[in-house]
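Lest this sound abstract, we think one record worth quoting, the chain in one-letter code, the fold tokenised, each line plainly labelled:

>
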Amino acid sequence: MSPKSRLYTLVKAWKNKPFQEVRDTCGEPWLGLNKQAIDEYQSWSTRQATSNEPIFNSSGTKLTGSLFRPLLNPTDSQLLRLFMEGLDMISYWYRSGRSVPGILPMPSHALVSSDCIDALSDLILNSRLPVGLVNLGIQKLPSPEMEDACEEGILRLRRLGVLIHLLQFSGTQQEIEWLNAIQPEAIHINISLLRHQELPIQLITQVRSLQIAIYASNITLVKDLENATSLKVDHCYGGLMMPPVSRHQILHISDSRIAKAIFSLHPHKNQNGDKK
């Protein structure tokens, strides 16, 4: 019997038992599984979590990255552990022969702490990942009194080859000033917010003048995809493109299959220029 089958049998047997804490002669808790089996099950369970949101180019013909969703709402005590899991996820893809950039969201208040920056730097250096695979997603701008400290933290991480994304970009004056100050590699626009208002063409032109990539997030309706196409964004993600998947499933995403599904959602021209 393979180790995986043995683990499955043990877990299934434990799951079907009514919960009852039993202690051995040493007084240690025992739940029907030894410590090694429990650790193996927990590790396997973590790897199967659908915590990675695939990101594609605007036409859906290529997988261009992944957003690590557990870091969108972490507690301070979870932050470093989840960041380490995100780095491990990117390393897993890289070791498997697929270089998929991972976007690891980070609250701005964490970037103000020098201790936190030290810890993040150590984790990034120990991961030994190539430049471009680790992307830091800043969820919202810091308060004015913390801007200088936050910029210093971002600069330290950038020296390690980390790319910076500004998530939840809405075009406020403070955000525009930040674009000029820190010059992030990318911004993310919640495209669902543009369903009933004029598209910010002028703002997009201004962002492009700074050579910043544009991501359209939360694409859940065909209208969202049409707006993203009109804005000529560089990357798209959301439920309409593909819902979150496990880190193992990322390795098996068929780009051509995604493109075919996306193009079938809206009319397109044939070689003669007529709509099909």
Observations:
- Residues 17-33, 269-276 have pLDDT under 50 and may be disordered.
- The radius of gyration is 22 Å.
- DSSP finds ten helices and ten strands in the chain.
- The longest helix spans residues 79-95.
